[in-house]
Specification:
With about 325 residues, this protein is an alpha/beta fold. Helices cover about 40% and strands about 20% of the residues.
């Protein structure tokens, strides 16, 4: 008799996490192939911020989560017993500037606040690199307004779902813009309050961002089920990647994405097909070298990660490697 478990995976309502949304959809759809999980079920647990996902993992309310890679490394460094199994996408974020601000050069962001999803996010790192190239210092502390106006742009960690609203209500044009996973950049553009500056892919091609982490006690107790789950995720990634490469899909096939992202069809299509998000299964195998680049930059250059970790202890790529060989 097979295992009978409801697998709870936390996530944000972002395109980066569509592999989870599509995987749940496939589990609940009659016309798809057998999902391979047997009597077990897969439940996506939507949350509004990275802090909520972190708390869910710490409190043991989640078996795993789709989570920002730098944040996952920091949780591991703090003693949380988790393993990183796979990337869940590559690239796909947007930098959106406030339409009220006439921005001719990146240096024009001096004195402005830039919204990021979390201090320990790849978006923060890429924004830092972009501004540094323009000789603009990025400050994530609580410096006073006069300090900011003199030489700095300031970051503010904000729930992605709130970014378009904050930009809309920014009467004094203090917010220069934001960098975030889709669909919230496309949402701000559709609302007429933001303008596309660039994609994250233009700053670091095929960069990693979010990954799947699981509680190690879950992995140890349900290793066979976890193997099936990871294979299921890779099958979903392959189908999503094929959909994007074809740049077309049956409109009914997007219903699940509208529900998962809680967005209109046009914004879903814009987010999925026009911002270089990549679900190529071969790109989702954990890449130790790229994670090392992230942790070294965020500990050394930025100083926002307190310490580096032993990536060999953190990563468990075996499930992903096996899944890629089987799809």
């Amino acid at each position: 008799m097979g295992e009978n478990l409801n697998i709870r995976i936390g996530h944000l309502k972002i395109v980066d996490h569509l592999v989870l949304g599509y995987s749940v959809f496939r589990c609940n759809s009659d016309y798809h192939e057998d999902h391979g999980l047997g009597d077990s079920t897969l439940e996506n647990i939507p949350m509004n911020s990275w802090e909520q996902i972190s708390d869910g993992l710490k409190q043991g309310n989640l078996h795993g989560a789709f989570i920002s890679s730098p944040l996952a490394m920091d949780l591991f460094a703090s003693g949380l017993d988790i393993s990183f199994l796979m990337f869940v996408h590559r690239s796909g974020s947007l930098i959106v500037k406030n339409k009220k601000n006439p921005l001719k050069n990146i240096s024009d962001l001096k004195g402005k606040t830039l919204l990021i999803p979390h201090e320990l996010s790849v978006q923060h790192m890429l924004l830092h690199k972009l501004l540094a190239a323009a000789n603009l210092e990025l400050d994530s502390s609580n410096a006073g307004d006069s300090d900011i106006a003199n030489s700095l742009a300031r970051t503010e960690s904000t729930s992605p779902v709130l970014m378009p609203e904050m930009l809309e209500n920014d009467e004094d044009s203090d917010i220069g813009g934001f960098m975030v996973a889709e669909p919230y950049g496309s949402q701000a553009i559709a609302m007429g309050i933001g303008e596309r500056l660039c994609t994250s892919d233009s700053l670091w091609k095929d960069h990693p961002c979010c990954g799947l982490v699981v509680q190690n006690d879950f992995a140890e107790s349900h290793g066979n089920l976890l193997e099936k789950l990871v294979r299921h995720f890779f099958q979903s990634a392959k189908q999503l990647n094929d959909m994007i490469l074809d740049n077309q899909t049956n409109e009914k096939r997007l219903d699940w994405a509208e529900n998962f992202l809680d967005q209109d069809r046009d914004i879903v299509r814009q987010s999925l097909f026009n911002n270089n998000v990549n679900f190529n299964p071969k790109m989702l195998i954990p890449d130790r070298e790229k994670l090392d680049i992230i942790q070294n930059y965020m500990t050394g250059t930025m100083g926002v990660m307190p310490r580096t970790i032993d990536l060999d202890s953190f990563l468990n790529p075996g499930y992903a490697i096996k899944a890629v060989s089987e799809i």
